[in-house]
């Protein structure tokens, strides 16, 4: 069980990255904090196991190859070029799924992860 005393450094790094990227791009997090929590956790796990925050919402036959190709490393090419985040981590303000936050409450994210 994750709590504010045992947060992996990669999770904290992905959280800080996500907030900074949302502010820089004018995007917002999903209105459902569970979606955001799972995506950030997946990015952190890929960073730990593969050295890069590979998009956790896709299937890869060879994750290490995908990391080296960099196309799906977050922010992925579709997000950087067209502002399309299929993970729903970075959403335009007019999206039906966008909340109003560019900052995240770590305790809400941890509660979401622990309730799975």
From TrEMBL:
It catalyses: [thioredoxin]-disulfide + 2 reduced [2Fe-2S]-[ferredoxin] + 2 H(+) = [thioredoxin]-dithiol + 2 oxidized [2Fe-2S]-[ferredoxin]. This is Ferredoxin-thioredoxin reductase, catalytic chain. The record marks 86 as: Increases the nucleophilicity of the active site Cys. Binds 1 [4Fe-4S] cluster. GO terms for molecular function: 4 iron, 4 sulfur cluster binding; metal ion binding; oxidoreductase activity, acting on iron-sulfur proteins as donors. Catalytic subunit of the ferredoxin-thioredoxin reductase (FTR), which catalyzes the two-electron reduction of thioredoxins by the electrons provided by reduced ferredoxin. The gene is ftrB. Its cofactor is [4Fe-4S] cluster. The active site is at residue 57. Coiled coil: none annotated. It comes from Leptosiphonia brodiei.
């Amino acid at each position: 069980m994750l709590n504010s005393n045992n947060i992996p450094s990669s999770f904290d790094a992905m959280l800080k990255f996500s907030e900074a990227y949302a502010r820089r791009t004018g995007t917002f997090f999903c209105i459902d904090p569970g979606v955001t929590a799972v995506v950030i956790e997946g990015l952190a796990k890929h960073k730990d196991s593969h050295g890069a925050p590979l998009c956790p919402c896709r299937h890869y036959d060879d994750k290490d190859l995908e990391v080296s190709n960099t196309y799906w490393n977050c922010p992925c090419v579709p997000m950087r070029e067209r502002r399309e985040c299929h993970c729903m981590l970075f959403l335009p303000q007019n999206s039906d799924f966008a909340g109003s936050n560019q900052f995240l409450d770590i305790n809400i994210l941890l509660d979401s992860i622990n309730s799975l």
